[in-house]
Design goal:
This protein folds into two domains: about 230 residues, Uncharacterised protein PF07075, DUF1343 (Rossmann fold, 3-Layer(aba) Sandwich); about 140 residues, Alpha-Beta Complex (Aspartate Aminotransferase, domain 1). Helices cover about 25% and strands about 15% of the residues. The chain is built from twelve helices and 16 strands. It is globular and about 65 Å long. Pfam families: NamZ_C, NamZ_N. This is DUF1343 domain-containing protein. InterPro entries: NamZ (IPR008302), NamZ_C (IPR048503), NamZ_N (IPR048502). GO terms for molecular function: peptidoglycan beta-N-acetylmuramidase activity.
Length: about 425
């Protein structure tokens, strides 16, 4: 799957057209990647992630150091071996503690996660999504460095980047080195879309004023956070080998591991920055269904009319089909919901920010008395969006309000990019 994809890559250019800002490329669409467990581990991928490059370098500069690893099941080398197991078996590295993010080290837990121990090694596994959201002094006692190896998905409100940033802050405060084993941005690193987070909306689901879809790897984000947020950590990013900004995940040859329970394929990761902001409202985004983030709905939605209005908007790269579903969990569990499937027709023209705000303006237009939008700014990142929606501004008018800030961000972002 994806092996016969033909890609024509032209020089990336930045285009700000009020409603959308993205770097133009042409990449032929490719198939949805198989789940991790359906793939046979290979060493044929042209992309080598940070743990592979670090291994080749003899684990410098942390050879002989006592380290804590922040990771989960997405932290793997090209052979499919967990980074935790690789480091545990490496005599030149002293792995003494593991730290886990949201969803735990297993990557499948929901809600608050308790600290535990690793069955294979007996090492403590400190949860950073439970009573503590950042490493404590007690957790860091005796460590020389923290190493971060988690697959991010390129969306501002995905919490792994905040976990990394909080850990960087604590590493700086405790005099520890911080190493990021970089990984590709699965939804490509050439697209930057949506509004910047307002400083008033900073939270665990929004660490810094960056766009909804930032177009950076986790290592590039670490560089950005370290400087722009004044963290000042002793930071090393072990770079990816063989990855280009225009590469989607299925062009890398790397195995897919679900980064969280409801991001099960590349299509869902791609749609997440557009559909995710609806989660703070009284709408199901498909949790508890077979296709989370590829559908949204509610018992009170007129699905046929919703699909008609959304399709009339002619959003690039997507179309909408009415579809009733009954979620088995989360919002409206066991209730029949009327909604729409989101069909990704061209991922290279798809524009997350414009799509997201069009979903919001359409819901407000059709169901303004029922759709609860008070918490919408929490993931969207802009408090003024409530006024904009209630004032009847169109999606393109609202998109125009973030274009200037996005252009400024693109200039600053350039300083921290690693890959061409």
């Amino acid at each position: 799957m994806g092996k016969n994809v033909l890609r024509m890559i032209r020089e990336a250019t930045i285009s700000i057209l009020a409603a959308l800002v993205f770097v133009s490329i042409a990449t032929a669409p490719s198939a949805t990647p198989q789940p991790f467990q359906d793939l046979i581990s290979q060493e044929t991928s042209r992309t080598r992630v940070g743990i592979d490059v670090w291994s080749e370098r003899g684990f410098a500069p942390l050879a002989g150091k006592r380290i804590g690893l922040i990771s989960n099941l997405t932290g793997r080398n090209n052979r499919g071996e967990l980074t935790a197991h690789v480091l545990r078996a490496e005599p030149s590295v002293d792995l003494v503690a593991i730290f886990s993010p949201e969803h735990g080290f297993s990557g499948i837990e929901e809600g608050s996660v308790a600290s535990s121990s690793d069955n294979a090694s007996g090492l403590p596994v400190h949860s950073l999504y439970g009573e503590a959201r950042r490493p404590t002094s007690e957790m860091l006692d005796g460590l020389d460095a923290l190493v971060f190896d988690i697959q991010d998905i390129g969306t501002r409100f995905y919490t792994y980047a905040t976990t990394m940033a909080y850990a960087m802050e604590e590493a700086a405060a405790h005099g520890l080195s911080f190493v990021v084993l970089d990984r590709p941005n699965p939804i490509a690193g050439a697209y930057v879309q949506g509004p910047l987070l307002d400083e008033s909306e900073l939270s665990f689901v929004g660490y810094a004023p960056i766009p909804v879809r930032h177009g950076m790897t986790i290592g590039e984000l670490a560089r950005y956070f370290n400087q722009e947020r004044g963290i000042g950590a002793d930071l090393t990013v072990v770079e990816i080998a063989g990855w280009r900004r225009t590469d989607w995940y299925d062009a890398t040859g790397l195995q897919w591991t679900n980064p969280s329970p409801n991001i099960r394929n590349l299509v869902q990761a791609t749609l997440y920055p557009a559909v995710g902001p609806l989660e703070t409202t009284n709408v199901s985004v498909g949790r508890g269904t077979e296709e989370p983030f590829e559908w949204f709905g509610a018992p009170w939605i007129d699905a046929q009319r919703l699909a008609e209005v959304l399709n009339a908007a002619a959003l690039p790269g997507v179309r909408f089909v009415p579809h009733d579903r009954t979620p088995l969990a989360s919002v409206y569990a066991s209730e029949l919901c009327h909604g729409v499937d989101i069909i990704l027709t061209n991922r290279d023209t798809f524009t997350a920010g414009l799509t997201a705000i069009t979903l919001a303006t359409t819901l407000h237009e059709l169901h303004g008395e029922t759709w609860s939008l008070e918490q919408f700014p929490r993931l969207w990142g802009r408090p003024e969006v409530i006024y904009q929606l209630r004032s009847g501004l169109s999606a393109t008018q609202i998109a125009a309000t973030w274009a200037a800030d996005l252009a400024k961000f693109l200039e600053i972002r350039e300083r921290y990019l690693i890959y061409e």
